[in-house]
Amino acid sequence: xxxxKLTYVFDxxxxxxxxxxxxxxxxxVLATLRSRGHAVRFYTNNAAKSRQSYVSKLEKMGIPxxxxxIMTSSYATALYFIEQNAVGKTVYRxxxxxxxxxxxxxxxxxxxxxxxPGAKIDFVTVGLDRDFNYRKLARAQKAILDGAxxxxxxxxxxxxxxxxxxxxxxxxxxxxxxTATSVEPFVVGKPEIYAYNKILELTKCTPDRSIMxxxxxxxxxxxxxxxxxxxxxxxxxxxxxxxxxxAMGKLSPDRIIETLEELL
Length: 264
Ligand SMILES: [Mg+2]
Known about the structure:
34% helix; 15 strands; 5-stranded parallel sheet; alpha/beta
C-alpha cells in the first residue's frame, strides 16, 4: 500500500450526502482514510451556511468532523479579508446569515440590507441570498461604483434541491451586481482556485498530493485540475458517466468512480 500522506478534499452535496441522507460508504471511507493518516477536508461552494452548521449536519450522519476540516466559500472569503489586512473594515453583505457569521467571526464589520445608511463601504460580498431584492442591488451598485471592492463567494448558476429540482444559485445575484456595475468580481469559490489553495496552505500539502473528489465537472473537477490536484468524479451526484467520460480539458477527471468505496 502507498503510505504517502495525502489530502483528500471532498465536495459535500452529491458526494458525502444527498439532502439528509449520507451517501453509500461515506462514513466508512472517511474513517479509513483518517485511520491511514491522510488529511480529510470538506469544501462546499454554498455560502449561505456557516461551517458550524456543517459540523452539526455531518455529526448527525455519524461523521464527526472538527470545524477546521470544513471550508466554505464564505469562510474562504473571511480568510481573504484577513490575508488582505482588511480586518475591521466594512462589508456590505448580499448573502445569508452563514456568510455574516463567518465574516463577523473574522472581525469584519458587516452591514446588511438598508442598515447604517451613509456608512462608507470597503467591500461588497455577494453570494446566495434568498431575500435578494432591488434595494440591495441598488446599494451594492452604489458602493462598488463609489470604490468598494466586489467579491463573489461563488458563481453557481443553480442551487440543487432534493429529487433533482433546481433553484437559482448565488451566481444569479453576482450576475445582477456585475451587470449593474460593469465590474468583474474577485471570485473566491470553485472553480476559481483561491479557496482550494487555502486548503493546501492550511494542510501544508502540495497540489499533486491532494485529491479533489466531487460530483460536478464545472466546479469540483475544474478547480482540482486548475490547482494541479488529482481529480476524482463520483457518480453519486449530478454527473452521468457519459458526461464525465466525454468531458474535455480541465473539465475531465483523472478517475471516475461509482461510489466512494473505490477510493480505498
Ligand atoms: Mg456537489
